[in-house]
Specification:
The complex is a heterodimer. Chain A is an alpha+beta fold. Helix content of chain A is 52%, strand content 17%. Chain B starts with 6 loop residues before the first strand and ends in a 14-residue tail after the last helix. In chain B, helix 3 runs parallel beside helix 5 and helix 4 crosses helix 5 (151-163). Classes of the chains: A alpha+beta, B alpha/beta. Chains A and B meet through helix 1, helix 9, helix 10 and helix 12 of A and helix 2 and helix 3 of B.
Chain lengths: 438, 269
């Protein structure tokens, strides 16, 4: 038989029992809706998590901090311990496989002045050669420091936003443009020697990061660690004798060591190896992993609910097809005697089942889009608090592939559930079929 | 000597055995005969004689337990389902007692149906089906559904369907079994005429002795065996004499006398 004839026949047979066909299609529609909506919610929640992850820094980052957390066997925080982080530690960690970049970190609180306005920032000193590996954002202007030109101070956009004038009656807020306005950096951590001139660093060579979601690169300022040591030395020289020693010893050991791992899948492995070296290390992954697992679990549960609905509709299709074969037993017998190939009989029933699946799938997808819209509009608040995603992201996200996948899945379910009835139809023996009434 | 028409159907020692528990039932028991091209052959027997089974065996609807059924040089019991289906598309037509039309389809669509299996294009097959329906006198009922037609009309649709693909052999299983006498004659005439127009071979099963008069050859079946084979030399056109001759022939055969017009063959080994 020609495909066009098979299609025509299949349509005609579906139309013969309109109510039954419609009910079966509704079954598939419900199945499709539940799968699409559930999966879309799963994806939406996952995306919210991903946004959260993006905001909390790079996922491939591991930190070893001066005050490492100590956990008991069950993973509860019990204490913190001070660990000595120096160049030998850095080299030790550099030797671990999958480590892409390692950088010691020194951070100091610093004050910024511009005329009568002032602000405070945390200054991070890192190895400038590792900036790229740590995914420092692109720059609005200027360029990152290199070993040849280490004196560049890298500013994040919001570090220049909140300058206040404390001398006035009302605290005026002002943002400073370091390109046109003079900015001076000072440390106030230690006491300056009375007879020495206060340490001042004027911003002459600056670079400005672009705004990103990552908070790390939003408020702090960065510089090369060697350059920092140089200015810290200058600063120390202005201090009282006692404080000079303290200042020098303060940067002898590092505040933190940052490690970047080549692949997100290796983060846990590297972290464990660092722990094996005797250092407490932590990564965002460590905390997000359980969250991610929860979210995956949620997606699986939602998917399972959807699948059950789809399974019911598959059984429904099979039932309809079996009924239809009983009704058409005689017809099948006649067709066989008139020379219809077994293959064509099978195809015809498969086509009918597939059409039910496909039609149900398409209608289901259309309704799913409406439901998804409604969920995002009205359900986000309720569900958001339920699921625990604080972000205002969309709760139900239907990616472009989902409708195609759902339609294909609907059709597949139809074909699969039509397969056994169709095979049964082909096994009907013409002689018996023609004896039946109808 | 006249040139012998070719044997289009040849049965050699065909048996069909049904098993009921330990008991063997011979529905068809060691039957051999042949049918020539263009012949109108009638399988005559009472119900339960195995005549319908024999027809089903020939059509490949049932498989013979043993023996050879050669149709157009092909051994039917040895063919698989697919090649049988194709064989039926090409060479066989069927007329049934219960018409077996598809109730959801119009007369035209029913007649078109065998052509659909043969992958004939819609335009062409519609034309052929329409011609056929006009030929059987249903030109005005093309779009009627079977339920809207009388038995005789339905059987005409059945005949149109059987002949539409111009098969060389048409099997008819009690084609007039559900019809009254007047319609029976009409239908038989129609089958006979159609077959003669295209030199088609007809194999008809019936229990009605009077219908045997239409046949060129009558095979009497009893308990799965051939009782006798009559070859009717005369043409069945002479309707008026038909019944009388039929009666006289039966009398002669009942007495077991070999008359000039009737030949009784012994079964072949």
């Amino acid at each position: 038989m020609r495909i066009s004839d098979l299609l025509k026949l299949a349509f005609r047979n579906l139309m013969r029992r309109k109510a039954r066909t419609a009910l079966t299609i509704i079954g598939v529609v419900i199945g499709t809706i539940s799968i699409v909506v559930m999966v879309s919610i799963g994806i939406g929640v996952n995306q919210s998590f991903d946004e959260m992850i993006m905001q909390s820094g790079s996922m491939t980052m591991i930190r070893v901090q001066k005050y490492g957390a100590v956990y008991d066997e069950e993973g509860n925080y019990v204490d913190s311990k001070e660990q000595v982080l120096d160049d030998s530690t850095v080299e030790l960690i550099r030797g671990i496989p999958h480590v892409k970049a390692v950088s010691p970190v020194i951070s100091q609180y610093a004050s910024l002045y511009s005329g009568k306005y002032e602000s405070g920032v945390t200054l991070y000193a890192m190895d400038c050669e590792s900036f790229e590996a740590f995914e420092f954002p692109p720059l609005q202007y200027g360029s990152y420091p290199t070993k040849e030109h280490p004196a560049t101070i890298v500013l994040s956009p919001e570090s220049m936003e909140y300058f206040y004038c404390f001398s006035g009656n009302n605290y005026q807020e002002k943002s400073i443009d370091p390109l046109t306005e003079e900015v001076i950096l000072q440390f106030h951590n230690y006491q300056t020697h009375q007879r020495k001139k206060e340490f001042k660093l004027e911003f002459t060579d600056v670079a400005m990061m672009e705004q990103t979601d990552n908070w790390e690169y939003s408020y702090n300022i960065y510089m090369d660690i060697d350059y920092f040591r140089q200015i810290w030395k200058q600063y120390s020289n202005t201090l009282t004798l006692e404080d000079r020693k303290r200042a020098i010893s303060a940067i002898e050991n590092y505040e933190e060591i940052k490690i970047n791992v080549d692949n997100i899948d290796n983060v846990e492995q590297v972290r464990e190896e660092i722990e094996a070296l005797g250092y407490a290390a932590y990564s965002e992954m460590q905390y997000l992993e359980p969250l991610k697992e929860t979210s995956n679990m949620l997606q699986m549960v939602l998917g399972a609910i959807g699948s059950i609905a789809m399974m019911v509709s598959a059984i429904n299709i099979a039932n309809t097809m079996v009924m239809s074969i009983y009704e058409r037993t005689k017809e099948i017998g006649v067709m066989k005697v008139l020379g219809c190939l077994v293959r064509d009989i099978k195809r015809q029933f498969l086509l009918e089942a597939g059409l039910i699946g496909l039609l149900g799938g398409i209608i289901g997808i259309l309704i799913s889009y409406v439901l998804s819209f409604l969920i995002n509009k009205y359900g986000a608040g309720i569900m958001g608090s339920l699921v625990g995603t604080g972000t205002a992201g969309e709760l139900s996200v239907i990616p472009f592939w989902l409708p195609f996948a759902a339609a294909a899945f609907g059709m597949l379910v139809g074909l699969l559930s039509g397969y056994f009835p169709a095979r049964r139809a082909t096994r009907i023996r013409a002689i018996e079929a023609m004896r039946t009434e109808g | 000597m006249e040139k012998e028409p070719e044997k289009i159907i040849e049965l050699v020692n065909v048996s069909k055995i049904y098993r009921m528990g330990n008991e063997k039932i011979y529905a068809v028991n060691d039957v051999s005969f042949d049918i020539k091209k263009g012949e109108f052959c009638c399988l005559l027997g009472t119900s339960g004689s195995g005549k319908s089974t024999l027809l089903n065996l020939m059509a490949g609807i049932e498989k013979a337990t043993s023996g050879k059924i050669m149709i157009k040089g092909k051994n039917i019991p040895k063919m698989n389902e697919n090649s049988l289906a194709r064989f039926r598309q090409r060479h066989l037509g069927f007329v049934f007692q219960a018409y077996n039309l598809i109730n959801s389809m119009t007369a035209l669509e029913n007649v078109e149906f065998p052509l659909v299996f043969k992958r004939v294009l819609p335009k062409k097959r519609r034309k052929l089906a329409k011609e056929m329906l006009v030929k059987v006198g249903l030109g005005s009922r093309l779009l009627h559904k079977p339920k809207e037609m009388s038995g005789g009309q339905q059987q005409r649709v059945g005949i149109a369907r059987a002949f539409v693909a111009k098969p060389e052999i048409v099997f008819a299983d009690e084609p007039t079994g559900n019809l009254d006498t007047k319609t029976t004659i009409e239908v038989m005439e129609l089958i006979k005429q159609m077959a003669r127009d295209n030199n088609q071979t007809i194999v008809m099963v019936t229990h009605d002795r009077s219908l045997a008069a239409y046949a060129d050859k009558v095979i009497h079946i009893l308990d799965g065996k051939i009782q006798s084979i009559e070859v009717n030399e005369q043409s069945a056109e002479e309707d008026a004499q038909m019944h009388l001759k039929e009666v006289s022939r039966r009398l002669i055969s009942d007495r077991g006398v070999d008359a000039g017009m009737t030949v009784t063959e012994e079964q072949k080994e």
